[in-house]
Amino acid sequence: MFFLFGWGTQTKKFEGPTEMRVCRVCGKESDWHLHRHSKWMTAFLVPVLPYSMKWVHSCPECGNFEVPEDEEKSRLIKMARLKRAFKKGKVKRGEYEMEIAKLRRGGNWKSGRDL
């Protein structure tokens, strides 16, 4: 009997658009996207245990990305999920605008070049 184990399998999940930003690289203003990158241990080529997870905020135009700090990360996750719920009709416009206004503020970033 033998077992087939591995690691390093990566998944990328699109959480949704977050906020309008001007990219430092391409100079275009667009709705940046939030992604969750996970690395998995596998058994028989099936991902079974995540061992690394990183959140990335990226420009949809050029692919430039930034890794948000913890406080900023939770704000962006809430914003992406709220926008997704609004687009599906689960949140009314007034409630959506009020919550988005609460979530908008500056944050701490690590540039993709600094990683």
Describe this structure in words.
- With 115 residues, the chain is of the alpha+beta class.
- It has one domain (5-105).
- 25% of the residues lie in helices and 46% in strands.
- The chain has helices at 70-87, 93-103, and strands at residues 5-22, 29-43, 46-58, 65-68, 109-111.
- The longest helix is centred in the last third of the chain and has 18 residues, at 70-87.
- The chain is elongated, with a radius of gyration of 17 Å.
List the helices and strands and how they pair.
Blueprint: E1 5-22, E2 29-43, E3 46-58, E4 65-68, H1 70-87, H2 93-103, E5 109-111
Antiparallel strand pairs: 1-2, 2-3, 3-4, 4-5
Helix pairs in contact: 1-2
Summary keywords:
2 helices, 25% helix, alpha+beta, 115 residues, 46% strand, elongated, five-stranded antiparallel beta sheet
- Using DSSP, what is the number of strands? 5
Number of helices in the DSSP assignment: 2
- Mean of residue pLDDT values: 85
Q: Report the radius of gyration as a whole number of Å.
A: 17 Å
- Domains, number: 1
Main sheet specs: 5 strands, antiparallel
Query: Cα distance, first to last residue?
Result: 42 Å
Order of helices and strands: EEEEHHE
Tell me, briefly, the overall form: elongated
Order of strands, main sheet, comes to 1-2-3-4-5
The SS-based structural class is alpha+beta
Low-confidence stretches: 106-115
Which range best describes the helical content: under 10%, 10-25%, 25-40%, 40-55%, 55-70% or over 70%? 25-40%
Q: In percent, how much strand structure appears in the residues?
A: over 45%
